[in-house]
């Protein structure tokens, strides 16, 4: 069936380095994507979104890239800080899902000092 | 603070019991979603309501049920609890069913 998934369940980076978190989606009709961050003991929190008519969107220290050809979404975090340690989820909206958002499994990012 | 509130924050109960989790959406949001998150797992979508009506169902067990009331708050009822039901239960809300969801702080359920 259609699904949203992540390439790696865990990612460990050095403080100050850039982080890249990947997400694969299989539903070519998906038109909207969101990255969420979930810190330990808290609910997921919106980071950045992108619509399918865009390839790239930048926020504060974060960039989301969308490659519709290979159905791949990535989240880049610049100058990763200890406070970035969390689980990151991608979510997609698709008409196959009744236009509802569906979440991937999540990647745990650990930032080493 | 997302504006979504959930009570209680923690709940400890025994197998076979029944519990009710409560969620108040952000002001103005008509859609409410319930998710289950087990240890080190992703978010498992359970059920969605929009303006009082059930809109979508995910991996929700028959022992679980939910409803959304006229004031738009929602309750998730879990019955005949099993050890495996121990998890974080999140509620989220959005203004429309297909827009960004705002998550509450969650209810941690422990079944002993």
Which chains make the largest contact?
A-B, 21 and 22 residues
How much helical structure, as a percent, in the residues of chain B?
A: under 10%
| Unreliable parts of chain A | none
DSSP strand content of chain A: over 45%
Helix count of chain A?
0
> Any low-confidence stretches of chain B, pLDDT <50, length ≥5?
none
The radius of gyration computed from the alpha-carbon positions of chain B, rounded to a whole number of angstroms, is 13 Å
Q: Termini separation of chain A (Å)?
A: 40 Å
Helix % of chain A is under 10%
The biggest beta sheet of chain A reads: 6 strands, mixed
The helix/strand series of chain B, from N terminus to C terminus, equals: EEEEEEEEEEE
Strand content of chain B: over 45%
The count of helical stretches of chain B stands at: 0
Describe, in plain words, how this protein is organized in 3D.
The complex is a heterodimer of chains A (113) and B (112). In chain A, strand 4 and strand 5 (45-51) form a beta hairpin. Helix content of chain A is 0%, strand content 53%. Chain A has strands at residues 4-5, 10-14, 19-25, 32-38, 45-51, 56-58, 62-67, 72-77, 86-93, 101-103, 107-112. In chain A, the strands form 2 sheets. In chain A, strands 2, 4, 5, 9, 10 and 11 form a 6-stranded mixed beta sheet that branches. A 5-stranded antiparallel beta sheet of chain A has the order 1-3-8-7-6, with no helix packed on it. Chain A is globular. With 113 residues, chain A is mainly β. The mean pLDDT of chain A is 87. Chain B contains no helices and 11 strands. Chain B is mostly beta strands and 112 residues long. In chain B, strand 5 and strand 6 (53-57) form a beta hairpin. In chain B, 0% of the residues lie in helices and 51% in strands. In chain B, the strands form 2 sheets. In chain B, strands 2, 4, 5, 6, 9, 10 and 11 form a 7-stranded mixed beta sheet that branches. The termini of chain B are far apart. The model of chain B has no long low-confidence stretch (mean pLDDT 93). The chains are: A mainly beta (113), B mainly beta (112). The A-B interface holds A 32, 34, 36, 42-46, 49, 89, 93, 98-106, 108 and B 2, 4, 35, 40-43, 45, 48, 55-56, 90, 92, 97-98, 100-106.
């Amino acid at each position: 069936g259609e699904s949203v998934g992540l390439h790696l369940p865990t990612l460990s980076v050095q403080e100050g380095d850039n982080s890249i978190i990947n997400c694969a989606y299989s539903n070519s009709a998906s038109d909207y994507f969101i990255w969420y961050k979930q810190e330990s003991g808290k609910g997921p929190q919106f980071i950045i979104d992108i619509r399918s008519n865009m390839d790239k969107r930048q926020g504060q220290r974060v960039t989301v890239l969308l490659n519709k050809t290979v159905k791949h979404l990535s989240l880049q975090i610049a100058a990763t800080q200890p406070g970035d340690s969390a689980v990151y989820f991608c979510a997609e909206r698709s008409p196959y899902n009744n236009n509802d958002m569906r979440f991937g499994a999540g990647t745990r990012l650990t930032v080493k000092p | 603070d997302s504006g979504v509130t959930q009570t209680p924050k923690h709940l400890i109960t025994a197998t076979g019991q029944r519990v009710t989790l409560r969620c108040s959406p952000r002001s103005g949001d008509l859609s409410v979603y319930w998710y289950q998150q087990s240890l080190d797992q992703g978010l498992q979508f359970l059920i969605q309501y929009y303006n009082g009506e059930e809109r979508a169902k995910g991996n929700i067990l028959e022992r679980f049920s939910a409803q959304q009331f006229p004031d738009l708050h929602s309750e998730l009822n879990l019955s005949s609890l099993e050890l495996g039901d121990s998890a974080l239960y999140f509620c989220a809300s959005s203004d429309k069913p297909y827009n960004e969801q705002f998550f509450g702080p969650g209810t941690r359920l422990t079944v002993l």
